[in-house]
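Notes to self, Inosine-5'-monophosphate dehydrogenase:
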Amino acid sequence: SLGEVFGGSKAHSGYTYDDIIVLPGEIDFGVESVTLESKVTRKISLRTPFVSSPMDTVTEATMAIGMAQHGGLGIIHYNMPIEDQVAEVRKVKTYKNGFISDPVVLAPHNTLSDLDAVKEKYGHYGIPVTIDGRLHSKLVGIVTKRDVDFQEDRSVLVDSVMTKDVVTIQEPVTLAQANARLADCKKGKLPVVNADGELVSLISRTDLRKARDYPLSTVAASGSLLCGAAVGTRPNDRIRLAALVEAGVDVVVLDSSQGDSCFQKDMVRWIKSTYPLLQVIGGNVVTRQQAKHLIDAGVDGLRVGMGVGSICTTQVVCACGRPQASAVYAVASYANSRGVPVIADGGVGNTGHIIKALMLGASCVMMGSMLAGTDEAPGEYFFQDGVRLKRYRGMGSLEAMSQGSDKRYFASQAKVKVAQGVSGTVPDKGPLATYIPYLRQGIAHGFQDMGVRDLDEMTSRAASGAIRVELRSPAAQKEGGVHGLHNYVLRTHA
Ligand code: XMP
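result:
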């Protein structure tokens, strides 16, 4: 049983995901019967038990939107000024599937060279024109490819070429209504305006063709996508938090590498008394004692992991931390008994690790490196030695700390900055639209092998000892991976 392997409170050895292997159970259902619904906080459920890390190379609005559309949750990082983080949260909260909520806008006094620059950067024409070139201002025209095709002189003003008689649609409008209007008017772009004729969003014919349903979406009662954001635990983080709440954030993560601090407990109590409806995730913790302190303070969820992330050097630098399987098991067995879900944060490198985290009692996993190479992660792809890559860096790397993330490591006042993370690259993972379904399907196969249809069944079987786990020797771990080949091609999904 799990208790025998992890040794309860008398444990002297720590184990991580690769140290253990799960023995198969009996299958009496098809893989399509598996569901992955789980909780991320006391009050928030997810259909996909994945959370994206609040890191500046992982989660901004685009990632948070994609995660929520696929049933997970994104936590917007806070290595940026308050107003920028608020803007990212707003983008998620106001996002409407199929609607472009932050279109590029021009002003009548812009020139055709400005238009060329937009085309060069974003690859399309069909730019709405407002009185002052801003969104939420009066719409005065639209400039399309046909308006400018035969214009040799690029110093001509947009005002003199744009189409002033614009076909628009007024809010409130559903995607289906917009679709019908686009089909009707045969235009490429349809600006959405409010009752005062101000530009609110844009609908594009090409996007509409791509628009699809997201049946797993994580949505609030209002219909908006759920959004998380991270903040620190210093007194001035209360100002940041208030602004995020104003923008509609649903869940806040108190971001610290060592969560059992007076700063975090004070912050939790303050949030709970000031914003009783806001869900608060505390952490990070790796022991029951730390978990008890934060649960007593009032957290709704706990983030577990210290020094196990792919970019972390905390265990090397500070000697503190815990192998992740032991940490998840120890904290989850206690926190779950108090009704607080656990997020296994860091060290996830494959679907097997996710299944093991859930089997050990985690309600979901938080991932950094797994998601950093997707299209939705911040930053551009680039090639190195023929491989398409994106940058990924620890929030404790010197590069990230120089932008403010040193607060996570209680180091913002320190004269000497000590790195607790590194900066590197990860390979291209493609869009979340293909990557998340692959991860979900891999996990479903694992559940089926274990003979469990869902997380409840997994938890009760693990607790009763019906799910059996063994430790693996180093040779067994080697045997469990690809071995004995001269070379091979790793393709993970099709
Ligand atoms: P993965 O393994 O998913 O880990 O890439 C992501 C998690 O790692 C933590 N994190 C850090 N830990 N130094 C650390 O010790 C760092 O620089 C650092 N940056 C991120 C964080 O918990 C994240 O979710």
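- The two ends are 35 Å apart (CA to CA).
- The chain has 19 helices and 20 strands.
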